[in-house]
Write a structure and sequence with these properties.
By secondary structure, this protein is of the alpha+beta class. It has helices spanning 3-29, 36-48; strands at 51-57, 60-67, 70-76. A hairpin with a 2-residue loop joins strand 2 and strand 3 (70-76). It is elongated, with a radius of gyration of 15 Å.
């Protein structure tokens, strides 16, 4: 599997994890109904989830991660 595909998969899994958590928290603790629940969950998940990117770096591809709760950019090994 290429590094770009891994980065895309990591982005999807991170977003999905936070989406379901935020969705169920919104349904449980607020009075939102209709399309506002999934829209709010998607926006919150986009902000909270880590961002992964495959970059060509010194002759090879590496995956880097940036997250709201971690300072700076970290390499994923």
């Amino acid at each position: 599997m290429s590094k770009k595909n891994k980065a895309l998969l990591y982005n999807f899994l991170g977003f999905t994890f936070f989406y379901f958590i935020v969705y169920f928290l919104i349904v449980s603790f607020t009075h939102m109904t209709g399309y506002m629940v999934p829209v709010t969950s998607a926006v919150a998940s986009t902000i909270l989830s880590p961002k992964f990117q495959a970059v060509r770096f010194q002759g090879g591809e590496k995956i880097f991660m940036k997250w709201l709760f971690i300072k700076g950019v970290k390499e994923v090994k």
